[in-house]
Each structure stands twice: as C-alpha cells, then as structure tokens.
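anyone seen this seq b4? input:
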Amino acid sequence: MFQFLHVHSIKMLSHKNIMAFEQERFYECLDCHEVVSNPLCPECLSFQIEAWLSSLSSYPLKDKILKRIKDYVKATNNLAEDTTMCVACGKPQASLCPYCFTNYVFALLKCLRVHREILREFLQFFNYDFEHISYSKDAEKLGVI
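predicted toks r here
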C-alpha cells in the first residue's frame, strides 16, 4: 500500500498517522462520481455566483438564474447522503464537485441565452474545467474564450 512512499518517509510516519491515512474516506460527486478533491460546496459557490450577478444589477435574467441555481442546490443537498466538509464554510455539504456545479450553471446560462459577455465573465471567475475537456471547449466554440 505504501510502495509509492520513499523509504525515509515511511520511517517518519507514526503508527497513528498510518492509521489515520488508512481510515481516510473519499467522497464521490453526486453527478460525475469522481472523488471530490476540491471540496467547495454548491451553496458557497452559489453565494459567490450571487455576488457576481449582483454586479449585473440591471440584468433582466438575474432573478431567474438565481432561483434556478438555488433550486438546484436545494435538490442536490436533499439527494446527498454522505458528503465531505466544505473548505469554505466547514459544513458537510460538498456533495458536488465544483466542476459539475459550474458545468450546470454554464449550461443554465446557455439555456437562458444570456449575453456572450455574461458567459465570458462567468468563465473568468468560475471555470473549474481545469483539464479543458468540457464546457471550456463549448465556450471556445461559442467564441466566449
């Protein structure tokens, strides 16, 4: 199990640390079923998105976007049985990885046909497609990045 560790590192690990390492749990995202390695909960992300949208005070779709996001967060929180702690708020509600959550929001924005500048700005602040395999490619096709 510890073959990847350097021999000297193994000597430095105490029995207590080894037991904690073996008992560490990994939590899956409700959507993609990958390990949530960046545990920032949808609620905290939605608060950040709400703050960003508040800067667009005259944008007519703002309230509709926020309502749909809040409904989605509520639905995912109700589905989650076992979640990891959010690094921002400390609550055990990181049931979706930030990638899946922002993928949902990006799809929502596209569905609501928001202005291209809104999509561009959203991706500047909330792009968790680090491997550039999904909605970043879609955004390139749309000409927003």
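Residues 1-23 have pLDDT under 50 and may be disordered. The chain has one domain: 26-142. kinda curious what u guys think
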